[in-house]
Specification:
The chain has 461 residues and is an alpha/beta fold. The protein has 18 helices and 15 strands. The longest helix has 20 residues.
């Protein structure tokens, strides 16, 4: 029988879409460390978490045992509006690189939010609605999460308040307007609306904000308003769970053609797209069924995995959230104005941190000018203008494909193309004008962040 041609795009039919989320924690021998109450230093109970988060999402956050969690029908139907997302064979990129490698990318940018964030936003809005809440608050960095959440809240008729990192609010007015078009309120952070915002503004006059600071403001807003809860677009285990649709679809598509990936690559901000992409494959690795090489790619300007410490830390600058054990640069670390706004978080998902610590996943840090070179090359041959965040994965996929060219080994590489870069044209402008610079924090810069990590028995540093 003739060898089956691999199409440019592998689509799934609606009936082939996953009906459950896959919870990789069920297959982990060492579970990610629990969230801690900073007051008592004991694991947060469901009751404590329910003041901040929606009840059903608290259950998902604490669920280390159920391998599959059914996706409610209403969410599955919403997914059908923009999913399944295509798995694309990057034939043009392979040809351009002259590599024997086979490269595939899972493209999550085909929806108005322009990223994978909608996969979790719609789930979180659904559970908030089901609980009878009035609305939700959140933070957004580059604006993708705020956009995705505003779309989801408008679908379920929920109030939506988005604290947007000030530099993005100013640099990215277009995403702000998408958020407003969906009826949500966008507030530049640090603002003067919250106690923590006022404090940070006083301490660091003129600060352009950070994700950690916007989180503190959003949490404060939620707990001080009746009928509101806080929702988060990354980092938390529930978010990785929802994002597992990315990995499951990828796996189903690859299986259709009997394709076995060797390397799976994703950019890592808080870890949700990477966690979602690799989860089902990691499950096979954890169960001893298959082996894959997983690579997390982060900016050299915010190197949580490659240079951070694996400790309990605050998830936010204002220290109002529970503490998580993760690779962290310290909640006070404010990265330089790297253009990949979605990768500027000081910490990393506890799940990915544990997998990385056990050596089950690798990490690489890359500089932004190199990332934009890769983005430009990709845009020119594959036609899609990639988000700066996604371009971190492109950069390492290209590096790996070029290694294959040197060694003559035809590996199969899969990477996550998390979104489009139409709202990041200021960054492309800086690159095109030759005005983009690389800023790598010195050890002394990092030490300032590390010094702010809490010290307590078992968490000495
Ligand atoms: C938010 C975002 C990321 C990074 O977030 P993760 O939680 O690490 O996935 C990457 N790419 C895009 C396009 C994003 O919007």
């Amino acid at each position: 029988m003739a060898k089956q041609e691999i199409p440019y795009k592998i689509y799934l039919e609606e009936k082939e879409m996953p009906t459950s989320w896959y919870n990789v924690r069920a297959d982990m021998k060492t579970k990610p460390a629990p969230l801690l109450n900073p007051g008592t230093l004991k694991p947060c109970t469901a009751e404590e978490l329910s003041h901040v988060f929606c009840d059903e999402l608290v259950q998902q956050e604490l669920n280390n045992t159920d391998r599959l969690i059914e996706i409610p029908e209403e969410i599955r139907n919403f997914y059908k509006m923009y999913r399944p997302s295509p798995l694309v064979r990057a034939y043009f990129l392979e040809k351009k690189l002259g590599t024997p490698a086979h490269i595939y990318y899972k493209f999550e940018g085909n929806n108005t939010s322009g990223s994978h964030k909608l996969n979790s936003a719609i789930a979180q809005a659904y559970y908030a609605k089901k609980q009878g809440l009035k609305g939700v608050t959140t933070e957004t960095g580059a604006g993708q999460w705020g956009t995705a959440l505003s779309m989801s809240c408008s679908y379920f008729d929920l109030d939506c308040i988005v604290y947007m990192v000030k530099c993005s609010y100013e640099q990215k007015p277009f995403r702000r307007e998408v958020i407003r078009t969906y009826g949500a309120k966008a507030i530049p952070s640090p603002s003067m609306d919250t106690e923590v915002g006022r404090k940070i503004n006083a301490e660091f006059p003129g600060t352009t904000g950070s994700l950690g600071c916007a989180i503190s403001e959003a949490v404060e807003h939620a707990v001080s308003h009746e009928g509101y809860r806080y929702v988060l677009g990354s980092v938390l285990s529930q978010v990785l769970l929802h994002q597992s649709v990315i990995g499951q679809e990828t796996q189903i598509a690859l299986n259709k053609y009997g394709i076995e990936p060797d390397i799976i690559i994703g950019c890592a901000g808080g870890g949700s797209n990477l966690g979602g992409l690799i989860s089902p494959f990691m499950g096979e690795k954890l169960r001893g069924e298959k082996d894959y090489q997983f690579i997390a790619v982060e900016p050299a300007s915010c190197p949580s995995l490659t240079r951070g410490k694996y400790l309990y830390d605050f998830c936010d600058t204002g220290k109002v959230c529970p503490m998580a054990k993760m690779y962290t640069l310290g909640s006070g670390f404010i990265p330089s104005a790297n253009h990949a706004g979605g990768l500027r978080y000081h910490g990393m998902s506890s799940i990915l941190s544990e997998l990385y610590d056990e050596g089950l996943m690798e990490a690489r840090a890359v500089e932004q000018t190199e990332v934009f070179k890769a983005a430009e090359l990709f845009a020119r041959v594959e036609g899609i203008l990639p988000a700066p965040e996604s371009s971190h994965a492109i950069k390492v996929a290209i590096d790996e494909a070029l290694k294959c060219k040197e060694t003559g080994k035809a590996k199969t590489i899969v990477f996550g193309l998390t979104g489009t870069g139409y709202f990041d044209l200021k960054a492309y402008e800086a690159f095109n004008d030759g005005k983009m610079s690389d800023y790598i924090p010195t050890d002394a810069d990092l030490k300032k962040g590390f010094d702010g990590i809490p010290q307590f028995p078992g968490n000495e540093h």
